Amino acid sequence: MNTVSLCMIVKNEENTIACCLDSVKDLVDEIIVVDTGSTDRTKEILRSYTDKVFDFPWIDDFSAARNFAFRHATMDYIFWLDADDVLLEDDRKKFSSLKDTLNPHVDSISMIYSLATDEHGSVTSSLRRNRLIKRKNHYRWHGAVHEYLEVWGNIINSDITVTHTKVHHNSDRNLRIYESRMARGEKFSPRDLFYFANELVDHQYHEQAIEYYQKFLETGQGWVEDMISACGKMADCFQHLGDHERERQSIFKSFEYDTPRADFCCRLGYQFLNKNQYPLAVFWYKLATQLDKPVEKWGLLNHACWTWLPHLQLCVCYSNLGQYKLAFEHNEIARKYVPTHASVLHNKSFLESIFEQK
Asked: Domains in the chain, please, with CATH?
């Protein structure tokens, strides 16, 4: 049977760490936690789960801390989590089965990372990450902030989901690290430019964020999913600034990197819907419904745009065009995905009243 080391880095996670470890403690063979300077009860809680708690002086480098944790692993595979991640019961069962049946020739297993859910627990935003890796391959983390794990070899994509729980963290930390690196004259990689721009967006520095997204795209060296994402985030910035023409240009720019994505089609549909240009809005929303939802997409996936949202908006468009039968049909499709959504229920009632009058 394969053995697994859980490796984590933490700081001041007294409110989350027990929930995380309770969800995986019986699935792994050792728990290794690196503390980067907790001042709360985190380490006290940790010691009730493991005696392998190590201190690591914080040097504004997440990769350094994660690699330090990996070096203490002794089992066949390494599984990594953040303190606000958990495995839900179905995923615990899948993980246990995977551990028992995993071919030792597999180098890495990717898992879905659920970033957000709706009020019914359905995933609304997700991506993939390499989560379970062969220890003897000595894979390493790279990047001081928004670090990534460099993996190669025989990689399989599992249907196991790691669920991220919403917990507030120091929102200035990452931006401060980037600004400090910039002040030291460090040359930013394309990936640094992208994530620095993301931090600027998070802090509402929209004009400066646009500048760095453009610098990132001009390198032509980014991961395609990041380049597409940068187009969407630039569009958000221009929308915030009220520049709808450049917002639209940013959306169309995403088509340079791949075939149209449903979320970008919905963006265009929304622009035309707001201008009461319903036939144009219908074109883009309808295209969104005709695209196949990716099954193993590594980039960020907005599930609403690939399922119910364009149908809901088509209902609005067709209703304004007086095509009530089509409006009702699309609202019913949306209702299959989100049966209790307030807008869906309102549309249903409204359209049924029109049919009764006729």
From this structure: 4-164 (3.90.550.10), 173-357 (1.25.40.10)
- Cα angle 65, 71, 75; round to 5: 130
- Residue 36's CB: how many other CB atoms inside 10 A? 19
- Cβ neighbors of 62 (< 8 A, separation 6 or more) are 9, 141, 143, 144, 145, 146, 147
Evaluate whether 325 touches 342 at the Cβ level (below 8 Å).
Answer: no
CA 253 from centre of chain: 21
Tokens of 59: 């040097």
Query: Comparing C-alpha atoms, which of 177, 162, 191, 194 is closest to residue 90?
Result: 162
pLDDT digits (tens, 9 = 90+) for 190-211: 999 999 999 999 999 999 999 9
Residue at 170: amino acid letter: N
- The phi and psi torsions of 35 (rounded to 5 degrees) equal -100, 130
Give the SS3 label for residue 286: helix
- Convert the pLDDT of each residue in 221-239 to its tens digit: 999 999 999 999 999 999 9
Which pTM does this prediction carry? Answer: 0.91
